[in-house]
């Protein structure tokens, strides 16, 4: 009897075994699981050594192991691990003495990519301070909002750009001290700091200065979904920083690699995946102020870069460069990033060689993410039993029109079927927490979804639609709600609308993103209702958006409407507007195009529309 039961059981699992063994990605699946297990074992060793082992501890250990290894290459200069460590000691001592910083304070960094970004952050970490990474493109209202997001503990702000003068009086009223990385400053209220750093001692600081910092303590504030208008500050704990640093490891990066960072360090991609990941691996970073398609491969060849970062747009820019005979003459073997289209992905591999593209799906504040550890093009990951057990998630049916999950008669969400796009939600657990946004309980609560699969459960709402195919590959479909992505940046439509309605002639604004042929993401467009008795003023509208919004967030197209179509709950409908786009032949309403050269919005003609599609006009 037992023999027959064994035979029946064997026959039952045989199809699964055959399917698994003949899966062309089986070897890559096993390799990923092996790396994950190996990483888990190493984590246990860290915990035995120190229950709270942080990325700072990892950096200090690396300094001891390889003090003279180059940590940062930047514009012809190199800085070893020991040099960066000593410089961070000087920063910490100068701030402790002259800014009276102490454990628990928050400091905002308002600066571009440069080596001092790394040692200032490390110096703050040695004092037990959290760091807010500010997008240096933001101005006025948004800039002030970023400070208030950090909480009442905000003590000091590094602000290296003239934009700070606009908000200085308000900062003074809020009791925020402003320091400039310069020898001198002629603006009253901004304190130069460079000389104090130069004169400070580079000897190590006592760990007692950060004795009360735990894995749950705030480490960073990274601004998400609103580098435009009013950003939200995602609170990133010490534990989360440490976890994010492992993305390089699971992507196959080793201690011998050289990592190229040209994405902004105020982004989680550049800072968490790039900089902290490099520290965890103990590798060399080639840092650039900003991405340059023309210099990209030259930098890679010059510095023997083996790992690169990308976003969809940067990979497209590389594919748009003139072809050369030496395109495959480089050592890059891994590319880590997100948001690349399948056609660009394929073209990139054909032109630049056999590079393992590790396409990611993740959110700074989220509790669920994926990584494509296979060679499958066009996917962000694969359903994996180990991953799903550690970080429970599901896809649920979503009503695009109502912008809410579909629920059954019991009030529970309905799971999406294989091949069907669904809203990705991650279960909030001790292992996969959702900390939320600093100083914004309303937005934090908005991201929590209750009664998903059973009464009383709690999930994180990613706001993204994904799809799982028959081979268990995960594909990103689209964003839902009030955010779209353009030029690698998240654009919050409600904040852009607020800026537009400040224009004298505009009564209401409905902002959304539309597709543009040959471009990643969606470009900004706004349907506006002009106040009665007035006419649309293209020049003043341009002046408004140019003053308050970064270039990537400014609506490139304006559609004039006499009234807006509303939902039953009085929300502006966007689905039809998005579908109709900006084709003047298909849209009967007056359309305008933002012309940077003329500094105004001009009527969108068939000629302009054609030039956009043929890329004669650059967006």
What descriptors fit this protein?
alpha/beta, Rossmann fold, Luciferase, domain 3, eight-stranded mixed sheet, 20 helices, globular, AMP-bd_C, membrane
Gross morphology = globular
Distance between the termini: 72 Å
Rounded mean pLDDT score: 87
How many individual β-strands?
30
Largest sheet: 8 strands, mixed
CATH class of the largest domain: Alpha Beta
How many structural domains does the protein architecture include?
A: 4
Radius of gyration: 25 Å
Please give the count of helices. Answer: 20
CATH fold annotation of the largest domain: Rossmann fold
Regions with little confidence, pLDDT below 50 for 5+ residues: 4-18, 152-162
What does this structure look like?
By secondary structure, the chain is of the alpha/beta class. It folds into 4 domains: 1-46, no CATH class; 49-290, 3-Layer(aba) Sandwich (Rossmann fold); 366-438 and 449-479, Roll (Luciferase, domain 3); 483-614, GMP Synthetase, Chain A, domain 3 (2-Layer Sandwich), CATH 3.30.300. It is 34% helix and 23% strand. It is built from 20 helices and 30 strands. An 8-stranded mixed β-sheet has the order 2-1-11-10-12-13-14-15. A 7-stranded mixed β-sheet has the order 7-6-5-3-4-8-9, with helices on both faces. A hairpin with a 2-residue loop joins strand 1 (70-74) and strand 2. It is globular, with a radius of gyration of 25 Å.
């Amino acid at each position: 009897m037992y023999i027959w039961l064994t035979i029946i059981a064997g026959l039952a699992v045989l199809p699964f075994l055959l399917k698994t063994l003949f899966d062309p990605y089986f070897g890559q699946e096993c390799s990923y699981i092996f790396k994950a297990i190996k990483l888990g074992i190493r984590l246990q060793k860290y915990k035995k050594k120190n229950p709270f082992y942080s990325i700072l501890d990892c950096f200090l250990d690396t300094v001891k192991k390889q003090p003279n290894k180059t940590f940062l290459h930047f514009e012809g200069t190199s800085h070893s691990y020991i040099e960066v460590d000593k410089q961070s000691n000087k920063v910490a001592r100068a701030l402790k003495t002259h800014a009276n910083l102490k454990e628990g304070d928050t400091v905002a960094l308002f600066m571009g990519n440069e080596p001092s970004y790394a040692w200032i952050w490390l110096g703050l970490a040695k004092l037990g301070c959290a760091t807010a990474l500010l997008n240096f493109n933001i101005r006025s209202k948004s800039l002030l909002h970023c400070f208030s997001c950090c909480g009442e503990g905000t003590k000091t702000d590094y602000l290296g750009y003239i934009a700070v003068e606009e908000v200085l009086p308000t900062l003074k009223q809020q009791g925020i001290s402003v320091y400039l990385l310069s020898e001198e400053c002629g603006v009253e209220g901004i304190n130069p700091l460079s000389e104090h750093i130069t004169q400070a001692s580079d000897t190590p600081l006592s760990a007692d200065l950060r004795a009360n910092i735990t894995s749950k303590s705030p480490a960073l504030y990274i601004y998400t979904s609103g580098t435009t208008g009013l950003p939200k500050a995602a609170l990133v704990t010490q534990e989360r920083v440490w976890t994010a640093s492992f993305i390089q490891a699971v992507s196959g990066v080793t201690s011998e690699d050289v990592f190229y960072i040209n994405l902004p360090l105020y982004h989680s991609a550049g800072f968490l995946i790039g900089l902290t990941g490099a520290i965890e691996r103990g590798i060399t970073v080639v840092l650039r102020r900003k991405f340059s398609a023309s210099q990209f491969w030259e930098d890679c060849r010059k510095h023997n870069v083996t790992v690169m970062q990308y976003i969809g747009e940067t990979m497209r820019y590389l594919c748009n460069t003139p072809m050369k005979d030496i395109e495959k003459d480089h050592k890059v073997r891994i590319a880590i990033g997100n948001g690349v289209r399948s056609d660009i992905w394929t073209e990139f591999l054909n032109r630049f060689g056999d590079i393992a593209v590790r396409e990611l799906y993740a959110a700074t504040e989220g509790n669920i993410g994926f990584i494509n550890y296979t060679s499958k093009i066009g996917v962000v990951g694969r359903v994996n039993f180990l991953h799903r057990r550690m970080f429970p998630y599901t896809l649920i049916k979503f009503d695009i029109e109502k912008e809410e999950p579909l629920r059954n008669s019991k009030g529970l969400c309905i799971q999406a079927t294989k091949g069907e796009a669904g809203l990705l939600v991650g279960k909030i657990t001790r292992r996969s927490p959702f900390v939320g946004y600093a100083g914004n309980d309303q937005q934090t609560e908005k991201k929590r979804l209750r009664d998903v699969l059973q009464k009383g459960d709690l999930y994180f709402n990613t706001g993204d639609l994904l799809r799982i195919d028959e081979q268990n590959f995960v594909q990103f479909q689209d964003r839902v709600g009030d955010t779209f992505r353009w030029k690698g940046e998240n654009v919050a439509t409600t904040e852009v609308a607020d800026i537009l309605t400040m224009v004298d002639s505009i009564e209401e604004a409905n902002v959304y993103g539309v597709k543009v042929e040959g471009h990643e993401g969606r470009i900004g467009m706004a349907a506006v209702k002009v106040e009665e008795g007035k006419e649309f003023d293209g020049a003043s509208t341009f002046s408004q958006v140019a003053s308050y919004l970064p270039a990537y967030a400014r609506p490139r197209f304006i559609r004039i409407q006499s009234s807006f179509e509303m939902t039953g709950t009085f929300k502006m409908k966007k689905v039809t507007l998005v579908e109709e786009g900006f084709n003047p032949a298909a849209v009967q309403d007056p359309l305008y195009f933002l012309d940077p050269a003329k500094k105004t919005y001009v009527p969108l003609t068939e000629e302009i529309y054609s030039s956009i599609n043929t890329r004669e006009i650059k967006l």
